[in-house]
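seq as requested:
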Amino acid sequence: MTKTGVRTKSSAANGSCCPAARPPKLGTDRAREYARWFKALADPTRIGILNLLAANRESVCVCDIVKHFPIGHPPSRTI
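C-alpha cells:
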C-alpha cells in the first residue's frame, strides 16, 4: 500500500497488504516494568492528580490536592 492507502500492484503481487513493520524496540522485561508503572496510574483520581501537578509550574500543596480531590484515607485494618 502507498501512503494514501491504495494497494499497489507490487504489494498485491507479493501477497502483503503493506510493507513489513519494524520489530518493537521494547524488550519484555522493560514492557513488564512499564506495565507495573501504568497499573499504579490506573485510577481516575491518580490521573487527575498528575494532571493537576503537570498544570502547575510550582510545587502544589497537599491542601490544594485535597481541595480538588476530596478523598479520605481507607479505614485502618488491624492484623
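Residues 29-79 form one domain.
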